[in-house]
Specification:
alpha/beta; four-stranded mixed sheet; 39% helix; binds pyridoxal-5'-phosphate
Length: 431
């Protein structure tokens, strides 16, 4: 039996309709920005393997850090015990984030990092003696993960119809999304801020927190907003004492051009969720960091005030060692130069597209629309993915939205060539 056949016999893949998507492509090896199949064909990973890869595949520096840590200490229960990699990674992140962050809570994926963020915010108010602050605000189209809390926040993505009855209520607001040559952005922002202010005027004292994917709403179609909007949002939330949670699971670790979206926007959220790129794309690890006053509200002489949350693999030492190695690579000037190069190539190619493409760039993340029959996982977008695969490119359209988010080690000529192929191909299928 081939690997494909064995896969079909035993594997149920994520976000997959198996009656239609019959074949998964076996990958045997990764190197730099490329993945290789069993026949030696290579594919340029333009989606960073579901937005996780940072420095390229099988990077030797991260691989070595993982190997060495595994020989020393692979794992230890993280309640009542600690270890160097977890502490060192937390110290490093706190040093890099805006001022005031003081505590790091480890989990092992983006969804749970969000669950922890929501739990921190919700219980914070209870612990302070304001249990009436129960409302959680989120933005339409936001994606925060697939566990029940995260699904509740992201129900407007339309992914979770079967579970709607089981989700908790969330107050949704439109995101003032923008793109190149968008002249209406300021009016859109003002409208949303007005809508939020009217809401808070009435319900502010009942509101625990707002959660936002800062600058880039990723999974719902790389919808972007301006740093100006985040700054005004922060001001408004401060006025009504509403906690601000940044879901930087995707935007963290350089995707916006800066290390974190909050640094690019010049804002300081109360809680921040990090995952995806944290280990360079090697291992599952996530962390939720908070400002000191949040942590302090959980202190007390009994367990009821504590945060009742934990995972078997919380703070896994090997994951943390990978995180430290990846961060070290990320902070090298050469990596910043690569990020700048990718941003420049993105901007150059996207500015050649017509206005209807609603082209948008935020650092290494670029996206544009093409007028093909849309919808997540529809025939048209699947066929296009397949055609790109035949040309050696991994591209996964979200409906009619195409995005480019390569590992930072991609070369300028590889990226330019990819753009040329993509634009040529799409011009051929435009309706
Ligand atoms: C991917 C993603 C998540 C969920 O992360 P998982 O590791 O897939 O659970 C949450 N929030 C955002 C913004 C994401 O992009």
């Amino acid at each position: 039996m081939t690997l494909r056949e064995r896969d079909q016999a035993v594997i149920w893949h994520p976000f997959t309709q198996h009656q239609i998507d019959v074949e998964a492509l076996p990958i045997v090896r990764g190197e730099g920005a490329y993945l290789f199949d069993e026949h030696g064909n290579k594919y340029l990973d333009l989606v960073s393997s579901w937005l996780v890869n940072v420095h390229g595949h099988s990077h030797p520096v991260i691989a070595k850090a993982i190997y060495e840590q595994a020989l020393k200490l692979e794992h230890v229960i993280f309640a009542g015990f600690t270890h160097e990699p977890a502490v060192a990674l937390a110290e490093k992140l706190i040093q890099l984030l805006p001022p005031g962050f003081s505590k790091a809570f480890y989990t092992d994926n983006g969804s749970t990092a969000v669950e922890v963020g929501i739990k921190m915010a919700y219980q914070y108010w209870r612990n302070l003696g304001e249990p009436g602050r129960k409302r959680i605000l989120a933005f339409t189209g936001a994606y925060h993960g697939d566990t029940f809390g995260a699904m509740s926040l992201g129900k407007s993505t339309g992914f979770y119809q079967p579970f709607h009855d089981l989700l908790f209520p969330v107050d949704l607001f439109p995101l003032p999304t923008t793109w190149m040559c968008d002249r209406a952005v300021e009016a859109k922002e003002a409208q949303v801020l007005n809508q939020l202010e009217e809401f808070l005027e009435q319900y502010g004292h009942q509101t625990a927190a707002i959660i936002v994917e800062p600058l880039i709403q990723a999974v719902s179609g790389m919808q972007m907003c301006r740093p100006e909007f985040l700054r005004q949002l922060e001001k408004l939330m401060k006025t009504y004492d509403v906690l601000v949670i940044y879901d930087e699971v995707m935007t963290g670790f350089g995707r916006t051009g800066e290390l974190f979206a909050c640094l690019k926007a010049g804002t300081t959220p109360d809680i921040i969720c990090l995952a995806k790129g944290i280990t360079g794309g090697f291992l599952p690890l996530a962390v939720t960091l908070c400002q000191e006053r949040i942590y302090e509200a959980f202190l007390g002489d009994n367990f009821h005030r504590a945060l009742a949350h934990g995972h078997s693999y919380s703070g896994n030492p090997i994951g943390c060692a990978a995180g430290l190695a990846s961060l070290e690579l990320l902070l090298q000037p050469e990596t910043q130069q690569q990020i700048n190069m990718i941003t420049a190539v993105n901007t150059k190619f996207l500015s050649t597209l017509p206005d209807t493409a609603k082209a948008r760039v935020c650092g290494v993340t670029a996206a544009f629309q093409f007028n093909i029959q849309s919808g997540y996982g529809t025939g048209a977008s699947r066929q296009i993915s397949k055609r790109f695969l035949e040309k050696g490119l991994i591209v996964r359209p979200l409906g009619n939205l195409f995005y480019i988010l390569p590992p930072y080690c991609i070369t300028e000529s590889e990226l330019k060539q990819a753009y040329t192929i993509i634009i040529e191909e799409l011009e051929g299928v435009t309706t």
